Amino acid sequence: MKAQLGTDEGKHKFVLKTPKGTRDFGPKEMAIRERAFKAIISCFKRHGAEVIDTPVFELKETLTGKYGEDSKLIYDLKDQGGELLSLRYDLTVPFARYLAMNKITNIKRYHIAKVYRRDNPAMTRGRYREFYQCDFDIAGQFDPMIPDAERLKIVHEILSDLQLGDFVIKVNDRRILDGMFAVCGVPDSKFRTICSSVDKLDKVPWEEVRSEMVAEKGLSPEAADRIGEYVQLHGGLDLIEQLLQDPKLSQNKVAKEGLGDMKLLFEYLTLFGITGKISFDLSLARGLDYYTGVIFEAVLLQQDNEHLEEPLSVGSVAGGGRYDGLVGMFDAKGRKVPCVGVSIGIERIFSILEQRLEASEEKIRTTETQVLVASAQKKLLEERLKLISELWDAGIKAEMLYKKNPKLLNQLQYCEETGIPLVAIVGEQELKDGVVKLRIVATREEVNVRRESLVEEIRIRTSQC
Amino acid sequence: MKAQLGTDEGKHKFVLKTPKGTRDFGPKEMAIRERAFKAIISCFKRHGAEVIDTPVFELKETLTGKYGEDSKLIYDLKDQGGELLSLRYDLTVPFARYLAMNKITNIKRYHIAKVYRRDNPAMTRGRYREFYQCDFDIAGQFDPMIPDAERLKIVHEILSDLQLGDFVIKVNDRRILDGMFAVCGVPDSKFRTICSSVDKLDKVPWEEVRSEMVAEKGLSPEAADRIGEYVQLHGGLDLIEQLLQDPKLSQNKVAKEGLGDMKLLFEYLTLFGITGKISFDLSLARGLDYYTGVIFEAVLLQQDNEHLEEPLSVGSVAGGGRYDGLVGMFDAKGRKVPCVGVSIGIERIFSILEQRLEASEEKIRTTETQVLVASAQKKLLEERLKLISELWDAGIKAEMLYKKNPKLLNQLQYCEETGIPLVAIVGEQELKDGVVKLRIVATREEVNVRRESLVEEIRIRTSQC
């Protein structure tokens, strides 16, 4: 969409748009967004989380060396003198910086804020360059797998609560992956880069991933093929038991540790009664460098959803992992604070909720106004101003049209359009009688209410709002 | 504060801090912030506002030529290929861009978000480089001064509601200023730059401002002295009447318009009953280029506040103005949409609320947890996990310690520290009897509750939370 400066202001043409990969949220989108946030925040609070906030940018060096191959997606600020800054890429690294800086060794917090990635946007699939993350993290030295289990319970609660349809939560462990790479003959130096290749398996077929490993990353075909056998495996406790017997894996120390914890995790998830939606999946790798233990990713399953015209491919809606080393990277003495986190990918969830609302008949209000202060005749602006001022001071949500002499019809139409349930009408007669005519928009019923009891009457009639 | 990467990770030293002029919000600060936002948002909703959100950065050219001398404070992003971007400097220009882009000619919206200015921070006075603005704007073609009056009512409601102490709302009109400059002999070309000089009068004495006008900006000493006489004036309706009789000003068309509207504004404010805190002040100029009509600024008055150790000089806490030309600058055909806005400078308000809380005895909770699920003996982790899962599924806000066998004393201490009002204790005997021991932390009273009625019991006992 092109636009030109008003002739009086200047000459040069410019494009009238939001930056690539970003969007505005209008009142309707915001109403949907607030709904989703409400569900997520109430879940986080249900689990006893505190809330924190950090700046949108960090010192560039704070983000350096935390994101592996994704580091190229970081937005840098222009050097205008002073510190070199970058926009945050996620909420996890700022959280770790916050813990180290304030010497906090024990906290359970959530943080909902926008993060920034110079990625190729796919807006219809809910992938943006500016997008919200809803993070819940548990930091501290605790007995194994208890926080890890609660975190998956949280994802299960939120996805169920938002009614996004069927989903599965894939889990794996970086230690199992590393052990697997070791027994497959991947040199230590190649662990992370081979890990990023495996991470692509949810988007591209094994054959492509294999050729990337061999051709681009110089892995031996034999090693690649051995990996190929493992990454096909997924299941539950049965698979864990099977791998604990695996002649090669069972001989590898880290793999054994990981499998032992995975077994414990599944026992706790059984007590939570949510194993039905959990899948231990050896192809799950996660891109980021800083994970050290259990990792997970929640994906919505394709289905014929009567709410949607055509089913939407949204992929992962939540993910996270354990990162026991990250805080230590910021600490002078390298003191570690074990952390486990979950991040809800809210933009993709918005896309679904928006599409669903489009399809549905539901008309969603964008204001909470209880009453419109209207006038029946001309020359009553002063009276309207006096009345609405009384209502505001009493805490009533009230609006009026910004015209000296609005037509009553226009005032009633405004209520129909915006869903305002009540109209308080002042007229000469009402003023004489010390009453206000209260009109119920839905039923068109009208009652005279004594001025002094108007506030109470409005409260009663809108108590459900 | 300095820190070094953990020896295993790397060698180079780096600084562990947030960027200059920014800060983290910990759980306690967030609790205060949420309180202030609650008061502000409920006021905005009381006045029927919708809510929108826009990206944190805009195309650089979108911000160009909107902020006059302040443009140098804009943060630019590094050119990493693609569009040239800048962080938003305020929420007003993005709002105007949003209106023009979506061809919206009529909306009442609020927007609460962070804005960015490469200013000299004065954190103790609540001036940051990243800070929140809480904006409420009314866009549309309406009868004069009705939205302008409501906007000042909103500021009055919010500052009263937050109990920040005594305040005054200074108002003026760009047309009165321009008319004044004209009759004082300021050449048209110098209006805006002289305006920025006048704007400094709240921080520096007239003599300095005068010499800046004459020495730096080449204004004639006579003109400067004539301005000096006017900018000392402040008052109410009386002053407006007096200036309407002023031999010079009354001959100037724009000044006359401005004074006429100012009179009307004061009539409406009288109906709202808030003129007691409004001062028509000819020294009020406001820095920004885009204002075209009534401008205002709300200032807290110094006082001995028993809540504060020493009174805090916070200055302006809200400001705004009418900007009828801004949207037109973004429209292809230069179509104008009259707008009037208010912006609450929340950071300064935080400073006061924080200081006040420090001084007060009040202990502020940072979570909403209703109950801690605890165990009296060892080997009850599974039972705790089962119970807490039941409570979460029933919507109860519940926590547990992430230990296999926590001491009961530690569990009770955790409640004392965090303010959790209830403890649900599982023990072997209780399990046999099918009950849970519910302990009220404040009174240390303990009651056995049948498991099936536990949720209801917790709801009743925490209903005020």
From TrEMBL, chains A, B:
Species: Geospiza fortis
Keywords: Aminoacyl-tRNA synthetase, ATP-binding, Ligase, Nucleotide-binding, Protein biosynthesis
Keyword flag Cell inner membrane: no
Spans traversing the lipid bilayer: none
Residues covered by the Aminoacyl-transfer RNA synthetases class-II family profile domain: 21-353
Signal peptide stretch: none
Superkingdom of the source species: Eukaryota
Coiled coil: none
UniProt gene name: LOC102039964
Protein name (Swiss-Prot/TrEMBL): histidine--tRNA ligase
GO molecular function: ATP binding; histidine-tRNA ligase activity; identical protein binding; RNA binding
